[in-house]
Structures are given as C-alpha cells and as structure tokens.
Amino acid sequence: MKFYLIALLSTIVLSCNSTQQLPNTKKTNVDYANTITAENLKKHLYIYAGDEMEGRMTGTPGQKRASEYIRDFYIEHDIKSPLKSNEYYQPIPGSYFNGRSKGNASENVLAFIKGSEFPDEVIVLSAHLDHVGTDAEGNIFNGADDDGSGTVSILAMAKAFKQAEKDGKGPKRSVLFLHVTGEELGLFGSRYYVENPIFSLENTVANLNIDMIGRIDPDKIENPQYLYLIGSNTLSQELQDVSTMVNDKYVQLELDYKFDAPNDPNRFYYRSDHYNFAKNNIPVIFYFNGVHEDYHKMTDTPDKIEYELMAKRAKLIFLTAWELANMDRRIALD
Ligand SMILES: [Zn+2]
Questions:
Q1: Ligand 1 mean position to 308 CA, how many Å?
Q2: Do 131 and 58 touch, CB atoms closer than 8 A?
Q3: pLDDT tens-digit series, residues 19-38
Q4: 82 is in which domain, residue-wise?
Q5: Is 185 part of any domain?
Q6: Ligand 1 geometric centre to CA of 82 (Å)
Q7: 252 Cβ contact list (under 8 Å, min separation 6)
Q8: How many Å lie between the centroid of ligand 1 and the Cα of residue 280?
C-alpha cells in the first residue's frame, strides 16, 4: 500500500512538472530582481520618510504610523506573518527600552515567505523601522537614508519573493522580512528578536542587514557604484563567497570591505542590528553606504536619495538572499 501510494504520488508530481510550461515559470531570479525599481522605491520612501511619520522615534505616534505602513504593505500583497497569532507585530514592552522610549511600548514588524523544501531554515532580511524623531523646536528628522532606504528596499524584495512564489518559484528556505524598532536607542528591537526568535537561532542561516543604502559617501563621489559590506566573512567564508559570486555575475558593484579592518575606529560591526545575530554565531552581512553630511540631521530627506543606485544595491541584496535561500545545503560556519 505504501509503495503504491508513493508510486501514485510520483505520478502526480511528474504530471505537475509536465504542466510547468506556462510562460511565467520561465522567469529567472534576475526577472524578479528587476521588479525592484528606482521608481517604486522612490514612491514608498517619500511616504515612509515623509513628515507624517514625524521622524519615527520609538514608541511615538509617528513610529506607530510607520509600523502600520509596513504592515499594510504586507497585507495588501498577501505576504503572511510568521507569528502564531497571525499578527504582524511582535510587541515589545516599554520597560524593555531602559527608559529611552520614555516608557512607551513599541514593536517589531515581521512577514515571511515560507520555504518550499526547508521551511524551518530561514534567511533574515532586516532593517530598522525607527529613527530619531524631532528636536526641541519640533523639526522633523525624516531619516530617508537612515533607515528608510533599508525599509522600503525590504518591502520591494518581499514583493519580488512573493511574485516568485506565485509563479511556483518560491525560495527553498524561508525568508523573514524583519523590521526592527529601537535601533537608534541601542539596537533594542533586534536584541528582543534574538531573545524571542520566531525561527530557532540554530536554523537561522544568515542575516542580511541593511542600514543606509541610498546615498554616496563623499569619499566615493568619483566612483559611486560601490557598497560597503561589513562582517561578510567574519563567521562564514562561504557567505562572502556567495555574495561575491552573486555580485560578479549579476550586479558588478564595487564591494568595499574597508570597514572590516580590525583596527577601524568606527566599529560599524557593532553599530547596527546584524550585531545581535552575529553575537549568536549567525553569519551576517551589513550593507551600508557610509556616513555623509546629512547623517542624523534633519536634512536626511527623500529628495537627496540616489534611487537608481539604491535599486542596484537592493538587487544585489535580493539576489544574495535568493542564492542563500535556494542552495542545496545551507552555508557553513567556519
Ligand atoms: Zn540606522
């Protein structure tokens, strides 16, 4: 009976395969990456880093509107939550923020695409949803680059993965879209996530963290087709090898590792949300354009973003996540 059932199932599987000649199934990873466009990123960023969000300070009404914007995007595109309650919010009590949120509670926002072959293994794409709010005079710090750029890039990547899933080309491993809060106050949201993970940390294959990818470092004005990568071979040489292969094959940005130098005084490796994954022995890549004259100023506005360049960087990250999610075996730790 069992053998018969297996034989029957293989027949069904084979017949399903034979029907996959629809035009849309001929799409490739590059076709899905190309759904991430400058125009689309710009449309979302002008809203996400608009004055209505009031600088997205953790726990404020502006930050709540930002979380709602992210959640509503996932609902609109039928991208599900991995939380048992089927809510998109992972609530964090006000007491967790050590007084830095004036006692206000906040939340991480989570959505995911379930893996087709290894659903328990997960690639985490992260960006922080909060920023520094307003100053005493009520001036708004829009945080378009920091980290509106990472936030809207993840939304676009999620939509691309969802389209692939609809076409029968969903990732083999699960992909988690993790929008963390409280970063500017001290990496609180990512720390809360790793202390209360939705996928076990053992099965968390890698974290690709994006924090500022829409601008150009003044040092790079002459050669702006670059991106700084931090930490990419700290725990897994294979992660950096995959990243390099993907870039060489599809995107051809200059990947600059200068901030990986052990004596680098900026200590960027410790300064964004990937660090909470790295300290749990999860391989990470931190994607970053470097600081610029508008960093943490009220002049970090959406009109200053280089949208074509940002789209290219987002495609690199998407294609890297695609590769990590579809490899026959997960990348190895060194
Ligand atoms: Zn940031």
A1: 20
A2: no
A3: 444 556 799 999 999 999 99
A4: 26-326
A5: yes
A6: 25
A7: 225
A8: 21
Q: What number of helices (H) and strands (E) belong to the chain?
A: 9, 8
Gap between the Cα atoms of 206 and 57, Å rounded: 28
Measure 143 CA to ligand 1 centroid, in angstroms.
8
CA 132 to ligand 1 center in whole angstroms: 10
* 207 CA → ligand 1 middle, Å: 16
How far apart are the two ends of the chain, measured CA to CA in Å?
45
CA of 166 to the centre of ligand 1 (A): 32
pLDDT in the model for residue 85: 80
Neighbours of 91 (CB within 10 A): 12
**Assigned domain for 309 exists:** yes
Alpha carbon 23 to chain centroid distance?
29
Number of domains making up the chain: 1
4 CA → ligand 1 middle, Å: 57
The string of pLDDT tens digits covering residues 151-187 is 999 999 999 999 999 999 999 999 999 999 999 999 9
Q: How far is the CA of 273 from the centre of ligand 1 (A)?
A: 9
How many angstroms does the Cα of residue 298 sit away from the middle of ligand 1?
14
Report how far ligand 1's centroid is from the alpha carbon of 98 (Å).
Answer: 19
Query: Is residue 96 over pLDDT 60?
Result: yes
Does residue 9 sit within a domain? no
CATH of the domain at 292: 3.40.630.10
Answer yes or no: is 178 within a domain: yes
Q: What is the pLDDT of residue 24?
A: 60
Alpha-helix residue ranges (DSSP H) falling in the chain? 2-18, 29-33, 38-48, 61-76, 150-166, 188-195, 237-246, 274-278, 307-326
Question: How many Å lie between the centroid of ligand 1 and the Cα of residue 190?
Answer: 12
- Can you read off the two tokens belonging to residue 106? 């906040």
Token digits of residue 153: 């890039």
* Number of neighbouring beta carbons within 10 Å of residue 270: 13
CA–centroid distance, residue 27 to ligand 1 (Å): 34
